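Friendly challenge for the regulars: who can give me the structure tokens for this chain first? No prize, just bragging rights.
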Amino acid sequence: MPNNTEDNLLSEIRKCKLCRSCEDVCSIFLTLKKYAPHEKLETVKNLAASSEKPLNWESVFFCTKCEACDVKCPEEIPITMIIDLGRRLCVDKWGLQYTRQKDIIANIFKFGNPFGNAESRTEWLNASISNDSNTLLHLGCMISYPLNKMGQSIIKILKKLNIDFTISPNERCCGYFCYNTGNHQAAQQIIDQNVEEFDQYEHIITTCAGCYTFLKDYYPLKSQLKHVIEVIFEKVEELGFIEKLKEKTAVFQDSCHISRLHKIIEPPRKLLEAMKFQIYEFDKALCCGADGGMRIINKELALEVGKGRLLEAKEKSNLLLTLCPFCIHNFREAAETYAIDIQIASIFEILEDLIP
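First reply, four minutes later:
Bragging rights claimed.
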């Protein structure tokens, strides 16, 4: 876990000058006109100091943890970490959790995934995978279940590029979902269960931005960790066929975690340029609305945020690309819910179709 004590984080709150610049980049505030990041700082201070349950405790859960406010804050306050502290205080001090959050934690401990799916994580796998590799491909829960088509695409691309990897039959949730509910003890239990498995490998490739961030920042890994977009981009020169492609356009949605926190910004863009895409950017790099546990507690709000992104994207192109499974899942449902005619795909699904 990051070395930030409760006292240190609470002292950071005093640095807030109420400049409100964080409001400009918060997808939740821009949609609801409440629950601004600076308001959440005050809530966390009250959660820590009060002997009675604060009335607005729920505000710390109305956050996608996109880290945009951290980047925007002129005082460099670690707002997202402070919100995580507030969630932990809700659980540890007051026992406050949404029913859906409790259900998800129960599913993870019983089934190894938040969806309560008893099937194998690789039930859909239609390719032979080597059991003899020192590189682990960690699929993650989203790719293993609701978005396994994306998993099929990734595996096909890695094989085409002769990238050595294996998939563990013991894979389970990394604990990211638990951590986002504020139940840090449950998350730590999962970390402790997974570390021994991960330490068997020299390299780990993740397909999910959430998994990548949680493994990188919260696990005591001995292995070298990379996101799959980095691995594929390193081999882009071997994709000789892309020279024959026709130019096309797409809007690209960054993954909040790996772009802001870990600065993996150029690889997806350079890969798309190599695939002959003219890339249009959003006016603001806002979250899709789904991550940080937001969709768990308020799916309708997550879809409403997603709708706003889709309407802006459609003004620029009929194709929206991303590499984040949370974005894809939320955008696709938002498009269906609000009847927005736009194609939503992962970079990997497009690249798979291009590979002969």
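The longest strand covers residues 248-253. The chain has a mean pLDDT of 94. Your move, everyone else.
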